[in-house]
Amino acid sequence: MTQATPTIEKSKLPKSPGFWQETWSRFRRRPTAMLALAFVAFLALVAIFAPAIAGTKPIVCKYKGHLYFPAMGYFNAGWENPIFMKDRFRKRFTPEKFKEKDPDSWVIWPLVFQDPTRRVMANEWPDQPANPIGADGKPSWNNLFGTNQQGIDVFAMMVHGTRIALLVGFVSMGIAASIGIVSGALAGYFGGWIDIVISRIIEVVLCIPSLALILACIAIVPNPTIWLIMAVIGFTRWTDIARLTRAEFLRLKEADYVMAAKSLGAGQFRIIFKHILRNGLAPVLVPITFGIAAAILIESGLALLGVSTSSSGASWGSVLREGRSTIEQTWWLIFFPGMAIFLTVLAYNLIGEGLQEATDPRLRSDA
């Protein structure tokens, strides 16, 4: 008589959350950090859809049997179809012109009919008066944030200036992060003369103030652009990122999983960028976030001093500069761009603090 062998049921243990999942879980428990993240996401949407929010160029129109997107000209002047220049619109799009030149045309207009680069004149939009100028340009239903000395709508300038503010932060710190992470990883992993050379370069760059270098470049370069400012900020603010990355690599390169990868024959660059970097990247995100806020302040400060590039378009700092000399009569030129800069910098700082608390075990309040 055979005896049945007992079966042992294997109980599945719940999978432990990964580091990034656990970090996001802790980050979500901080209301201020989540509110700041939502505010930055809102600014990103405003920057992307700026031509659809405020402008005098149609979002989309059917003209002479074809679909056109004139509002894309706010991103790049070359993206505006030449047919409108040929038909002598002269960059003034009005409902009357479309009906006059093509009675079968239809147009979808932005939410607010105001332009960030010029004054809107009377009856460009049906029954809309011309934008007031000077001290008469107080906030009103036609001009939500008022107008500047030339009669240009401040709300339209603020909406389109959001793109400049976000670009300066993300592009400059993208350059800084790329340089800092790569150089710090090489210095921390290989050590020796590579570490010595990179460390000396870091010390030299630390002695160069970003603002002074930007002013020097603007004085030397014949036609400076906003991209020059981004590049200079990026090439001078990578040092903190490199030092943090180097410290993380010095700590992690002796870890067991790194030794296991070496024993399995993994290449050095595979170990650096796949095994170590993904585990040592968390502390690096904090200075990147703070650096974005600092880059926005630098660009706004340059515009306030009147040394911003001529091709940068409407920016928050340039609006702020216009109200500096007439602050008693045109308070709205100071208040609205000042609040935008303050809230944006504050949001990035709150995100950085939230990341620091979520990734650093010594700062976790739920540990």
Briefly say what this structure is.
The chain is an all-alpha fold and 367 residues long. It is built from 15 helices and three strands.
CATH superfamily of the largest domain: MetI-like
What is Rg? 27 Å
Label the overall shape. elongated
Major sheet characteristics: 3 strands, antiparallel
Summing up helix and strand content along with how strands pair, one would put the structural category as mainly alpha
Tell me the helix content.
Answer: 55-70%
Task: Name the strands of the widest sheet in spatial order.
Answer: 2-1-3
The assembly state of the depicted protein chains is single chain
Q: What's the architecture of the largest domain, going by CATH?
A: Orthogonal Bundle
Structural account:
The chain is mainly alpha-helical. It has two domains: 57-109, no CATH class; 155-363, Orthogonal Bundle (MetI-like fold), CATH 1.10.3720.10. Helices cover 57% and strands 3% of the residues. It has 15 helices and three strands. A hairpin with a 2-residue loop joins strand 1 and strand 2 (66-68).
